[in-house]
Amino acid sequence: MTRKTRQESPEDVQARVWHRLTTEGVETAYEALVGACRDPKGTAQSKATAGRTLFEAAGFLGKAHERRQPEIFEMAGEQLAAAIADLGALKGHRAARAAGDGDEGIFE
Questions:
Q1: What is the pLDDT of residues 69-96, one digit of tens each?
Q2: pTM for the structure as a whole
Q3: Hey, how many other C-beta atoms are within 10 angstroms of the C-beta on 58?
Q4: Are 98 and 92 in contact (CB under 8 A)?
Q5: Count of domains observed in the chain
Q6: 59 near 65, Cβ under 8 Å?
Q7: CB 3.0-4.6 Å disulfide test: which of 14, 21, 58, 62 passes with 25?
Q8: Is the same domain home to 33 and 74?
């Protein structure tokens, strides 16, 4: 007697795999990179590559570091004023959407 098993939808599979990737996968990749950096038999090139990858992932190198928004306590007066204005505009947009008279974008 064969038992029918529920066929997983593509969305179910993607959600399950995404969860594993962002938990187990990230930890495994991190451990592998740190292991490569600490390997006494590792080549200088493998250690440098692993170290650079760790620094990039942490946001210390590359475009991610350049785009990083300063924390509030790091902002100058004009940056704070701009951030407050952005928050005010966002609040107004959300209030308009909630009231039903907002400009609907293509993804909303």
A1: 788 888 899 989 998 998 898 888 888 8
A2: 0.50
A3: 10
A4: no
A5: 2
A6: yes
A7: 21
A8: no
